[in-house]
Amino acid sequence: MNLGLGGKRALVTGGSSGIGLATVRLLLEDGAQVALCGRDADRLDAAAAPLRERFGDAVLPVVCDVRDEAAVSAMQGRVFDAFGGLDILVANAGQGRIGTFADTDDAAWRDEFDLKFFSVIRPVRAFLPALKESGAGSIVAVNSLLARQPEPHMVCTAALRAGVQNLVKSMSIEFAPDRVRVNAILLGLIYSGQWQRRYEARSDPAQSLEDWMAALAEEKQLPLGRLGTPEEAASAVVYLASPAAAYISGAALEVSGGISRFA
After folding, report:
1. Taking the model in full, what pTM does it have?
2. Coil, strand or helix: which one is 33?
3. Are residues 227 and 189 in contact, defined by beta-carbon separation less than 8 angstroms?
């Protein structure tokens, strides 16, 4: 892609694997400088090493738990020292919690609230002055279709995903006068390590990955007949973050293979 990202400075949270790492690659390939953060130092180094070989100092790995205010502050300092500011923030940290209302206790609700909300709030709070100074700042939240289409086995996550989407809309309005755009993608079923583990635990050891995913897509009634890839989700993130989407703010772009049931 050539989306006008040359010289842009970006941070991708949850950037050591999956959609986050795919987003980092695409941003780098389009000419951006990219910081990527994750909680696991070994995993982060393993993800960053081949990128640094190819892109050099344009890649900045930072160990950070984005729920930790002090850690986010330290990351802010490292990013500013390396890049001098920030133009793009991709808030990608956070996984889903399986559970019904009945089996989700108070501690689980608090943990999920902390992860879903503060993984967005703390990085935005830390980098918002720099995004305003950019004059063309962009925030993209990686959210879930659960925000609009809850599932009975993910009650807690769905409720908080809806709250995050409301937050995205509120920020898009509040930050607009400072020329900071805020958008989100709403993910459906995207192939990830979670699905790889489920495949490895399948009951039929002779079933190929392709056949297993096709059966899963049929079971989930995916109109496109397959799961999405991290790269497909990343393409949507990078587009929304780029100057090519300069008049898009407050939007929620579905990356779901057509599975949504709402108009």
Report:
1. 0.93
2. strand
3. yes
